[in-house]
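Progress against Task 2.4 (sequence-to-structure conversion) is shown through the following example record, which the project officer requested during the mid-term review.
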Amino acid sequence: MRHFTIPLICSALLVFPAPLLAQDPDQSRQLQLAQSLEQAGEWTRASVLYEGLYRADSLNYVYFDALRRAYIQLKEYRKAIYLVQRRIVLRPGEAFLTAQLGGLTYDEGEPVRADSLWNVALLLQPANRQMYVIVAQQMQERRLYDKAIRTYEAGRGATRNPVDFVEELALLHSATQAYGSAVEEYLLLLRAAPHQLGYIQSRIASFTMKAEGVHSARTVVQAAVERTPADVPLRTLLAWLAIEQGDHAAALEQYRIIDRLANANGNELYGFGQRAMREQAFRTAADAFRDVIAVGSASPLFLPARLGYARAMEEIVVRDTAVHAETRAANGDAAESFPSLDQAVSLYREIVRDAPNSDAAVQALYRVGVIALERSFDLDGALAAFTQVQRLPRAGGLGWEAALAAAEVNIARNDLATASASLRTIPSGAPPEIRDRVVFKQAQIASFEARFDSALAILGTLAGAVDRDLANDAIGLQVFLQENRSVEAALAAFIRGDLLQRQRKYSEALSKFQGVVKDFPTALLLEDALLRTGELQVLLGRPAEAVAVFRRMFAELKTSMLRDRALFRAGDVTERSLRDHAGALEIYEQFLQEFPHSLFTEEVRQRIRRLRGDAS
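Structure tokens generated for the chain above:
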């Protein structure tokens, strides 16, 4: 059990009329010196000074409290007890002093008498809310959490406020891992103040990372929902807990009820669908959007929901494709083309057909272009879609995105002049982040055309790019060009290979990079060319050849900054493509010996544990 305290600002300073600050200049200097010693942890020397100050003015609360602190730090509890007892004589009836005395008595080893003193403190001021906090704080500082809980519960009865001490009790329950009881406290607050739902979620989130915590919370809230089934905030909390457990399907069931209870006409469902998309629960998101579509075309969410549904269906196919491809690669099967995205494309095109002048149509048509470019590599289809997006009257900022994408298509078609022309259609008044991307793309085109001086001049303008990732990419390309200008033939060949790879001409790109490795063995870009060679072998379905390249990099390039990446990829391909778990384990273990502080080290440790069958 961890030590747990709730910060408390003692109200004692407010109830004492005695002077709080020394008036005598000598006492002021002595107090400052004692406080300095206290801050430095020199409690013995500080206590001597505090004793002198207390003797000079025993009514001064600052002197009394400082000396009490010093005795506690020095574990001189008898002295502290005598000090507080004397203060009680001077100030009879001050219950907080009795509470302090109880704590010191407990420290001295008299728990029964401590309980009696705490009870006396509460009896002295039974209706004072703050007194229950003071007494409970004394108990918490001594890890008497159950007693502190009972004290707060007694205080709630005394104040006759059913939501009093909710925060204190919830924190104590969670500290003792009584998560269900903690949630019960927060539910009291939710019933009294439904607008506090967001705050309550943030507090419960402190223990939902633990399986026991989120399970207990969901069980308690589920029972509460069954007692009051029409309580929308309560159902919203239950849906959130289901999401926290990764049970998006159960959350959707709650949102269907919430939407109906709140007469939201699909708004609650649509919001949930968007969240499910962000959390990559695409199938559940598709179901949510389909429910919104069923509300009818009169709903303002009809088109956004259709777009969301199409987007979810697209991601479902992409995810299933990735899993399928990895499984086939793991089994050593030949690479396959992507399963059809025709359904998603049809859904997008139906939106364009039914509402051609809508924002949804612009986004749908843009996605058609993205699918054509990134998934099927249908360059003609992609260019047609992006060109049509730019012509739509409601294109807005997505028109600029389409122009950038059209430039990428033309680069893939090896039509660099048209790619540059596409970039020139983006106006100078576009947002800075768009203009920066245009400039970077222009620099890339210049490098593809072997106009390295021009590329470097363009890249020099991007040091202050709005997007820091883009700025880093610009710096990376700039440094690469500068470092390799001395062997321009090698640089030109490498850039040509890069362009071929972008065009998915993998065999030609591989030949070009292999030529760089053979013809320029002393060039600085040798390591980059070798890494590209290995990655292209993977893309071409030749994992054994890829591993050989990666292992060569590790063995021969002793000073390379890419050695750790090369050895990691050797293990990765051995594990996932060659399905040689013993061989992968051997490589990963070698990796830990060679690179204990690499960015890949934690991932390698996790893979070793998995391959060994260790518990995570």
